[in-house]
Amino acid sequence: MAKNSSSRGICWLVGAGPGNLGLVTLRAKECVEQADVIVYDYLSNAQILRWARPEAEVIYAGKKAGNHALKQDEINDVLVRHALAGKKVLRLKGGDPMIFGRGGEEAEELRAAGVDFEIVPGISSTIGGPAFAGIPVTHREHNSELLIFTGHEDPEKGETSLDYAKIAANPGTKVFLMGVSRIRQIMTALIAAGADKKTPIALIRWATTPKQETLVGTLGDIADKVEKSGFAAPAVAVIGNVVNLRKRIAWFENRPLFGKRIVVTRTRQQAGELSRELDVLGADVFELPTIRTVPPTELEDFGRLVMEAHKYSWLVFTSPTGVDAFFDLFYKIYDDARSIGGVRIAAVGPGTARRIKHYHLKVDLMPELHVAEGLVKAFKKDPKVGSLENETVLWVRPEQARDVISKGLTEIGAIVDEALAYKTIAETDDISGGQERLREEGADVITFTSSSTAEHFFELGIPLPKKCLIASIGPVTSATIMALGHKVDIEAKEHDIPGLVKAIEKYFA
Fold this sequence. Notes:
Blueprint: E1 10-15, H1 26-34, E2 37-40, E3 57-60, E4 63-64, E5 67-68, H2 72-84, E6 88-93, H3 103-112, E7 116-120, H4 125-132, E8 146-150, H5 164-169, E9 173-177, H6 183-192, E10 200-205, E11 213-218, H7 222-229, E12 235-239, H8 246-249, E13 261-264, H9 271-280, E14 284-287, E15 291-294, H10 299-307, E16 314-317, H11 320-333, E17 344-347, H12 350-358, H13 372-381, E18 392-398, H14 404-411, E19 415-426, H15 434-441, E20 445-448, H16 451-459, E21 469-472, H17 475-483, E22 490-491, H18 497-508
Parallel strand pairs: 1-6, 1-7, 2-3, 2-6, 8-9, 13-14, 13-20, 16-17, 16-18, 18-19, 20-21, 21-22
Antiparallel strand pairs: 4-5, 9-12, 10-11, 10-12, 15-19
């Protein structure tokens, strides 16, 4: 008997794009968010996995020359088996699944097994890579054709199916993938077939990512340059006069933090904001979450205080996470924002204030110095506040927090209740491979956005790479880092994410 539509599995064959997270399609993101099983390959940006549901099963099926985590028939079996079990299966492939990605073969296997599937195209490195290197693959003044071929054919075929004479004679731009290891053979074959050895060629390695490298030469000398420089896969090659346009329109590799390896230690849910801002400046960002947040130990007590928030004079938030925890529960209790009543709201800094604004509420008090001490000072000095004598204050905070707020406000006469909104625990999963990458590749900067991120990072016991800088969001976090026996090299003057990014950019400038 056929399964009903609600229990039928499906397999999405999804293009992850050429590597840059910003080039992933909206449909691809939707599939990641819904998937029960994710099978991803070597060229997929691992940061895509942070969109996955916590309970999703993640399977690495990486393929690089001479080293396959899973063979193709094993990948096919995984896709079919899970889909037939009624699961939503995502096959995440670098670039576009149908451009030398074996997506067609996988689709045939799925169809033969009676599995429903959907193909989600992605931006191919054949066009995305050259664009990020400042090379347009088509240009009115240079060419009206584009030829794409592979430099790595099926090794079982014996003879090549490429007609090098036709490729050499084609007047347009030529782009090929997976050919770095055979660059000398390919160049020799093209020149022997009549191609001019002076024709420009560019190889773009790790295209569209902050690890991008571009090597420019001619058909006659590029193989020597590859061997001399140690240039290696993965790379896309562009042949034609359009390569010369790179001198005028190269843009990506000129960014202020280009190539700097920067570690983000925030939670998986929060890492995106900092990663995006560093990525825009060209940094090679990899996420190594050291903490995650979970509901408080006494959720019922927190719920009672949320329910009674309208009875307080002031509501104090000291983190965006606290804001989300509060309003997630608030809107489960009430269905109208006006149920919060006339309570005034204080935020420790602009990041927290932006999160409050997300819930369409106004912040009445925010200090100049974005730490707990600054907030207490604002309550004491800001004329808008008035006397706090016998005024009630509800402070929404994590289970582990300094008592600066409660002590400071109590000293000036306030009656302070503490709503324990969440607790921070160590992140034990390395789903995006950040820990492994830090051990293997090192980093230029490690960022810490709270004391807890620093404490839990150093508990991991990962040795700090040589010459690696430590960047802190502010003095409280810096004090924790120094108490742990480490030097702070960069500290944000404005104690929020934009301030931290600005401080890192200024240091390298």
